[in-house]
Amino acid sequence: xxxxxxxxxxxxxxxxxxxxxxxxxxxxxxxxxxxxxxxxxxxxxxxxxxxxxxxxxxxxxxxxxxxxxxxxxxxxxxxxxxxxxxxxxxxxxxxxxxxxxxxxxxxxxxxxxxxxxxxxxxxxxxxxxxxxxxxxxxxxxxxxxxxxxxxxxxxxxxxxxxxxxxxxxxxxxxxxxxxxxxxxxxxxxxxxxxxxxxxxxxxxxxxxxxxxxxxxxxxxxxxxxxxxxxxxxxxxxxxxxxxxxxxxxxxxxxxxxxxxxxxxxxxxxxxxxxxxxxxxxxxxxxxxxxxxxxxxxxxxxxxxxxxxxxxxxxxxxxxxxxxxxxxxxxxxxxxxxxxxxxxxxxxxxxxxxxxxxxxxxxxxxxxxxxxxxxxxxxxxxxxxxxxxxxxxxxxxxxxxxxxxxxxxxxxxxxxxxxxxxxxxxxxxxxxxxxxxxxxxxxxx
Length: 444
Ligand SMILES: O=C(O)C1=C[C@@H](OP(=O)(O)O)[C@@H](O)[C@H](O)C1
Ligand SMILES: C=C(OP(=O)(O)O)C(=O)O
What we know:
By secondary structure, this protein is an alpha/beta fold. It contains 13 helices and 23 strands.
């Protein structure tokens, strides 16, 4: 008799603590800040240092991309618990030669690196994960062409494509429709000081999403001595000039702090995140408004944000939550009143179609989620266990973990998807939920 193989249920059983979750969690560096500073360091007028940067798949892809364009990036020991600091020698003047860039599933790599490839001499071929080929890239392709750069995308407006640079970009006025991603704007702004005439970028479509991320781009450019005029809505002017080398501390990733704070809200516990900046352009600072709307308290004192849940989760209307939306949606699915998430139509072009993924997976656990033109409507419904699909999306994986806090039997299909921006997620989550002694990474 031959043995037949029985499919084994795989996945990560999300812990259900059955009591309030209480603890302190230090989270790794911001993806958006790390990858912006890496790009600026590659363009800078001397060597730069990133202290406490993120070390994850998205940052590793950015490091590899910039190395392939000629930057020298070395790891040196730092003081943070999440890995070494990074020293960056910029891409040398006159860098030339054909090369390849693997974008993985990283929006910051596929959008921010092509303008740097345009500044070199030679052809750079860009590709990525299967789903990366579905993500919108047309505005980058058209903008580079508008700047006189040769781009071969086979007419797809998507990966794979190649950029052929001739050692410089003239710059000037360019119009784009950045309705599908703020990263189209950020990408051009980050490189623009190195264009001969700088850049006058005009957005011609309807609403640009994720405006906080553009504010972050403008802020980091100004820190590096680049003159940016963003006084006219939907227009940005960047003066040509040097990008000043820097030595910077990377803030913790406040978006990735979200699931841990959500654990306090979902269970009526209390979670503290040290290293919370007093001033920041990170969209994750909005947790201080969003979570109190759900009935929690949020207190920022001496650089520590403490969120305390009330024991019940209240729904509400949440606008323009950008990359926070999957975490917000998971909490709304646990709420006792209905919720509406608006201003997030562009999430259909993220790591996966997040609106469809959240609707499908929350409803698969018994939820009541419908898609609207620009977001989600979520009504209270009794949830049950089951497999929560992750679509290679880190924020779907963390959304499944949040649901599992209150719903026994949730199995997150691929918890390793969190390695995109937080490889330590499962370890930190398990430690927090189990109420173990703080690990080195959790200590103050
Ligand atoms: O510039 C950035 O670092 C990001 C911009 C946003 O992109 P979209 O404008 O496409 O939402 C955000 O969702 C993404 O996670 C990171
Ligand atoms: C949309 C996201 O990522 P990316 O930078 O790949 O666009 C995200 O992290 O939620």
